[in-house]
Structure formats: structure tokens, C-alpha cells
Fold these 3 entries.
Entry 1:
Amino acid sequence: MKLSITAVKSDLEQLINAGDASGIRQLYARFQQKTDLDPDLCLLFASAFASLGDMVSVEACCRALISQVPDHYLGHFNLGLALQNQGKGDEAIESYVAAASIRPTESGVWSNLAQLYADLMRYPEAIDAGENALRRVPHAAVAMNNLGVIYRRSGDLEAANQILRQALETEPRYADAAYNYGLVLADQDDGESAKSYYRRAIELRPDYVEAFTDLGSVCRTLAQYDEALQAYDQALKIDPDYTEARWNRALQLLMLGRFDQGWQDYETRWQSGGRGRRRFKRPVWKTEPLDGKRIFVYAEQGLGDTFQFIRLLVLLKARGAITVVECQPSLVGVLHGVDGIDELVPRGGRRPVFDVHVALLSLPGLLQIDEHNIPASVPYLHAPTTANQPLVDVLSGGDGFRVGLVWAGNASHSNDRNRSCRLQEFSELMQIDGVTCYGLQVGERAQDIGSLDAPASVIDLSPQLQSFSDTAYALSQLDLVISVDTSVAHLAGAMGKPVWLLLPFVPDWRWLLDRDDSPWYPSMTLFRQDETRQWAPVLERVRAQLVMQK
């Protein structure tokens, strides 16, 4: 006996409009009891469950359909959708491939395959599927746009640029293509052109919150800071809950020294990519009295952030707290004995007992820190009195004015291509009479010394720098540190050592703008790139200053 499709459809529409999930499931249970399952009804119920977001039931409906009609295109296609939405990527691929084998001329299945492969970072397969989709509809701007997005994600910016231009030539009023083309242009460091395409996307779609947000970001890279803020503000007028806009506005406000609003927006980091939030049964500290309470403070971001903000623990001690600090394991040695820390534990070690907890970089906002009340008494980090003997021996041999050099940060940092430089840029410093240069660089970039015309002009300390305690000891033996924006610069500043910090044209927020000093580190001098965004003019100024300093 068959159920009437018309009757079931009518009942389903009423149940869907009423949001009656229970009623839909009861009707489906009746349907399943019938021995003669109708494929069209299977699809109908799959659609109903999809409207409820119940992908498990969608999967069940599609599998029931395929068991009756193994070569049913929509059965396999919708099964792929259900599996993809459940995060079952490999199974979804199998279903889409099956659907494509049944109807190889359908562009939709190839488009979904391309997106799924891209999400799994299987870019060659994603590109192949995207090109298949485009071949099925050779003039479809949507397929061109989707392929352009995949090319960009794969790192092939030239191919992305070309196909997205074709999409816009095919459909000039296609907002998504204009936006994605702007993203590619920004990646290619053509910020002004990127701006024009973001604005074009916004003209076509005035509520395009992503385009406003990326307009703000490209304005920031162009040092057009007021315009950046306006774009972020506009994005948040459209969608106050859009975390990427609020997070980027936080960075811009902090760079401009507008700390009050900046710290408030900075808390959006928990929604924007996670960034290390921890969850405990004990409550989060929200400025309530701390007399006699144990507060657990955990490092959540980079090593330099920990060095910079660990100073705030003294303010918690002043409120009567017992401070328990969790830090990155590599920092335990150098943070041991820091004023304001009662108990120090490494991340991944035992979980201490505490009453309340807080993330380290939430403290500035909670404590209402601005450039006028930063606890800037240095040193607050100290070097050990000795180190491994090979390091002691190397440092005991140099003479003259002793300068430590750091030319590169963590290569995985999102702005590393702008903040790091080539060691060759420092070559003029190594030729100054009376100056001895020491390489404080560790990791892969320490090998850059071997590429110098005269490698002996820099004494490479990397083999002896096995920990941050070793680095701190080395810093204590030097007269000056010249560094790009890295954790070593923070460590030197926290130790009160003279530091000359080399900054890109658009610096990290903490270095503010239009000043050559830092409220965070009194012993630090900032050397900023000018609008040419080149390191050579910066190092020329550094060399002239060093000649006078030594």
C-alpha cells in the first residue's frame, strides 16, 4: 500500500510551517511502516528534515531511497549534503562522486565536491572538480567565482585573479565576485585596487558585512586608520554580532591608543578563531574583590604576549590575591621568581586549585590599563647568574660594544612577511669598528648567518641558546639588542636592556603610532619603516645611531 504523496506533502507543509518536529517524525514513522516505500516520499521527508536541521534523519531518508534505487542521482546528492553538514567529509565525497558518475553533466555536484575538497585542503582535487563544474556551465559567473575562491585558498593568486576577472566580465554586477577579487588583490599587495572592488561589492550589496570588514582591514594595511575604523563601524551597524569586524576594530582602536573601547572589543577574540580560551567549573574573574582568593591566570597567546603582560600580576597581588600562573613550558625558567607570581605551573601540567580564573590578556581590560597607568617599572624579568658553559665561554670572548641581533620572528605568524627581514639588511651594522655582533636568532632562520659574505662578522649563539633562560643570560651580557618584533625583543625590554625595535610600516597594535618610544618598555627605542615599506632606510638610521652610541 502506498501513501498518497499529495496527502503527505500537504500534511508535511502544515507541520513544517508550524515547526512541529515531533509531528514530522511521527508522520515519517508511519511512512516507514509501509512495505512499499515511495522514492518521491523519501525525498520529501529528507527535505522536511533538512528544514529542521536534522541531518541524521536526512541521511536515513536518503539511504532508504538508495537502497531501493541505487542509481538515484538526488538520493546520492542529498546524502552527500547531509554527510557534509555532519562533518563526515570522506563519506560525503563518496556520495558526491557516486552522484557525479550517474549525472556527470550536472554542475551542482561538481561545485559541492570542489567546496568539500577545498575544506579538506585537498586543493588539486578541489581545482579539478571546480574546473569540471565550470565546463558544465562554461559562462557561469558563479562557477568562476567558486573556482577563484579555491585557487586563492590553494595559494595560486595569479589563477585566482584571472578567473575572478572573467567572472566579473561575465557578470559585472556580481557582488561576491567583486568581493573575492578584492581579497585576491589585497593578497597581492595591491591595496588601493582591493579597496575599489570592496566598494564595488558594497555598492551592489549595501549590507555586505564581510566586504565592509575587509575594506577596513585593507585600509589598515594602507595606514588609512580613520577610514578603517569607519568601515568596521559600518560593518557592526549592519551586524553587531559580526565578530571579525569587532575583533579587527579592537586591533585598530588599540593601535590608536583608544584603550577603553579597544579592550572591550578585544574580548571578541574568543569568538574570532578561539585563541586559547579555557573552560572551568570555577567562575571567571570579573573584577570582584580578591582578598585571600586564589586566582588562576593562564597564558593564551604568544610568548611575547606572556612577557609583556605578566607584569600585571603585581596589580592582582595588590588586590590581595594569591596568584597561580600557567605559562608556556618554555617560559617556566625565565618566569620563575617574577614579582607577583605565587605559584607557577607549565601548560599541560597538573591543574592547580583556584577560586576564580582569567585569561592573561583579559587583564588589561579588567584593570583598565592605558598608556598612562601601565606598570612600566623595569626590570621585572631577570637573567640567571650563569648559563651552560659553552654559552658562557662564547660570551666571555667578545670585546667592544656588544650588540645582539634578531632578524626574524615565527614564520607562521600572520604578518611575518612584513615584520621579519633578511639578515643581509644588517650587514652595514656588522662592519662598524668597535662593534661586535651576536646572533640571537634561533630556529631555521639562524642558518641565514651561513649565507653572509663574511659569516664570521656575526657570532652565532644559536647552538648555545637551548632555552629562554639561556637567551636571558645572553641578553644580560650585551650592551644593546637590535630586533624585529619578536619575543626576544619583549624579553629584553622586560629585563630593562636597551632595545632598538625595528617595526614595519603598519605595526602591531601595541607599538602605537607616531612615536619612537614605548610606554610598555622604557628602555626601548622604536625604528619605524616609512611609506616605502623598505628596511634599508630603517637600517641606515640604525647604523647612524649605532655609530654615535658605541
Entry 2:
Amino acid sequence: MAEEATATRKIKCSQCGAPLDVPRGADYITCPFCGSTIEIKKEIYQGEFWAKPVFDKAAATERFFRWTAERDKPARFNERVVLKSVIPVWVPTWHIKEWKASEGGARDIAFSIQPGFAEKKTYEALSPQNLPLETIKPLEGPLDGEMAKPDMEPAEKINFLKSRGQDVQELSLVYVPLYRVEYSYKGKDYSLLIEGMTGGVHAKDYPRKPGWPYYLYTLAFGILFLLLSLPLFSEDTVDLGMALLCMGAIISLPVSAVIAYLIIKNV
């Protein structure tokens, strides 16, 4: 969790003015220059962090091609798809520590994660997730790829949470990794998102295996057998009807196999 990640912040000694590095979470620090003991004023905003991806760019690319081979895709989709780009995208999330009332009137510290990205329609499928502590690093500069814009500034977020009655103790902004995959199929462009921590794929619009060939196939054979069974409705042609049905069944088996094969391979 971001709030436990190792980091420092800089302050000035209140006695001699010397610059000091203060570990996160420290209540007091002794100035090495003048020996003064300084009480550290607790800051709510803990800073920016980033989560090291479990899936790197190569693994995300491999995950994409596994997705293209899943059953709901058109035949040979994984062979016909053209991969255009795999772009790292960093999406901000708010990690919040706050006091909450518990049973018996006591208060406990609660931890929660909220989406922090402004482009809600773009990333609305993503759900906040607990991140392994070892993956959280202090953000020291721009990350490789695109960084999505936070929905508000930290001070604004703190005021917003407090206006809702939340007793916020700590707030961190953690950027989690995604990959935006752009590809084309039969001349049309598509895109999807792959989560860098879980490998989850989020795709709204993508080519799906069409169902019409199966319905057409079923309808055609239904009509055929209906026509072949018409002689059964007359006593004079019952034998003919039975013969036609048997012949139709015998012929339909290999024909069905061929048609099914062609549908699976070419649709």
C-alpha cells in the first residue's frame, strides 16, 4: 500500500534553518547541525507513487495475442489481426487512510482506494485494487508512457473528502500501470486496455464470431427436412417419404460436416 512505502520529505530546522530529510511517518527528528529536537507536523498528503507492473510490455503483448485466440473471436482472428502499438498508460488512484467509527463507539483506521482519473469514460471498466507493498515506489519523475490526468489536485481532494464527513489522516496518489493496445482487423481499427498488475483485458468494441452462418445453416436444413417429410402426410406416399428422409439424413451428415468445417475455418 502506498502509505507504507519508504520515502522522505524535506523540511528546515526551526532553530538553525538547516535542510533536513524527514522519513515518512516520523513524529520527531533531531537536527544533526544544532542538536535541536523538532516535532514533525503530520501532513495528510503523502505524495505521488507508482506501482511497478507485474506485466511488462512484452508480457502485455503476449497477453493480447492469447486474448485474440479465445473462442468468441472470428476464425483465425489471431492470425489475421494486425498489432499496431502497445502504449504504457499510467492511471492515478487515491489511497486513503481515515478514522472510522467501529462497534462499541471506538474508532479504527480504515484504508480505501478510489479511482483518481479524470477520463472516467476511458477507464470506467477498471476497478481499484490492493497493490502489493513491494511494487509501490515513490514517484521521482515522469514515467515511460502516457500519464492520465488526476481528477483533482491533492488539496482539493482532501477538502472534498472532509466535506463528506471523512476524517482523512493520509492521502496518497498512486499511478497504476495499463497498456493501451491498438490493432486493426479487416481494415477497421480497434483498441483495448490491459491491466499491468493483473493482465486483465478490457475491450468494449471488438470483432466477434458472427452467429448468422449457424442460424442460416439450421434454417436451411430445417426447410429441407420439412420438404422431404411432406410425403409422410399422405397414406399413398408414406414409404416414399420415409425413403426420402433416410436419404436426406445420409446425405446431410457429410454435407453438415463440410459446411461446419468451412464455417469454423473461414467465418
Entry 3:
Amino acid sequence: MMFLAVAYAHAAGAANDYGSLLKLAQDWRGFEQPVMSNCTPDYSVAAMAAKGATLPTYRARLHELDTRGWPAAQIVDYRLIEAEMNGLDFDLTVRQPWARDPSFYATVFGERSDVPQHEGVTAAPAIDLFAFQFPLSRADQRNLTCLLGAVPALLEQAKVNLRKSNARDLWVYGAGTLRNQTEVLAKLQAGTLDMRTLEGSKHANLAGADRALLIALERAHKATDAFISWIE
């Protein structure tokens, strides 16, 4: 956000209750993310129902704020958080990509998109290989091992979450999206992955990587192939 990055100490002396908006924004950004366990997000029916049940609490906190006299910049922040809440409500009640769209579960990306985030909605956390520095540090190896290690569990969860979906066009498109993921994983395994970034091309090299990372990569690749077969 443009303005919510302002330090709380500066905001405290601003218009009434702006500090409360900053606190709400921090809480909200945590809430809107899926519940995580071992790098695996939970998009189950129960988890999404829980978000839907709790969303009104955050809306109530927002609407309780007295914005009279706030400058335009602070009103923009208020409207931004309000729009994000409306967006989550729309996802929960209408779009429901976790329950309709197989491509939602394509989370491995080998190049930066030409839009600020990814084209289309995707499960969190996205595995942006282009954001890593190669060769990987020990910390990055552990992080990537956890992220890739979660792919099989996420795709198994997807089979349950998508069982009532009848959006054929999304399934046809989703197969292609997942084929792109398996291609990226195969190239990463083979050491032939060159990634497009804002700074130019970046080569992904796993030479010297821990065995745990290589195993996680192999399992993610196999799980993606199996999911493609399931989609088709």
C-alpha cells in the first residue's frame, strides 16, 4: 500500500483513528492469507467456510472507524482495505477458484510475469523461482525444499477441493497451465532452466544442492504429472 507503510509513530498524531486503521490493515493482511502447515496452504471447504464466518468481524472493525476529517491519503487507505475485503467476499461467495479452477494450484513459476503479480489467481505461497539467487544459500535451500515439498500435498488437496467443479473451460486451460509447471520443474532438474526477470535472463543452477531439495523437486515434478493426468 502506498500510504499504510507510513510509520505508526507518525500516524498516531494524524486524524482520529488512523492508527486503528493501520492495526486493522496488519491484522487483515494476515487473515486473508490461507492457514499454513509445513508450507502447505489450506483451501478446504472447512477452511474457506471459517474465513467466510470471520470476515464480518473485520468489516465491522473497519466500519466502526470514524473517518470524518481524515485527509484524502488516509481515506484512500481506508477504501483500499475495504476493497480488499470486498474482493475476498467475492472470492468466497462467487469465484471460488480453489473449488473450480485447476490452474489455481499451479504455484511454480520460472519467469516473472509482465504484470505486477501473476496473471490470474493462484494458491499461496507462489514459488517464484526467478526471485531466488543461484547458487542457493543454505537458507534458500531450506525454504525452497519446504515450498516444493508442499506441492504433492497441495495437489492431493486440490483433487478433493475440485471434486464438484463443472467449469470445463477452466479445466481445459488448467491442464495447459500445469504442463507449463512440469516443464519448469523438469528444466530445473536438468539444469537447463533460464528465467526471464526484469534484470534480464537468470540461470537456475542446483549444482551442489542438498539431497533433501533434490528429492522435494523430484516429488513435486511427479505430483504435477499425476495431477495433469487426473485433470485430463
